[in-house]
Amino acid sequence: RPDAAPVTVEFICKAVQDGLYDGVSFYRSDFVIQAGLHGSGKTSQLGSLPVNETHEHVRVSNRRGTCSIAHFDIPDNGSTEWFVNLTDNAHLDAAYGG
Known about the structure:
Elements: H1 6-17, E1 32-35, E2 67-69, E3 82-85, H2 93-96
Antiparallel strand pairs: 1-3, 2-3
């Protein structure tokens, strides 16, 4: 949702336009499906997102069908990994927005 995370949406759109995800497959299929550069041998020149972005009073819960940027246990280090929630995953909201 560009209204909830415009910098993140722009970041992912740029990665797609640059062909970063061409030939990259989803590699998880439990409660999320995830894609990105993990294991692809590709590298990104985009760097990392500066923040785990949500605007004040606009929160998007990790409900079935929503997307989020994956990151390590440090909230503000998202990059080219992202996932689609296959189920409602409210337990991810504290780390991934929501």
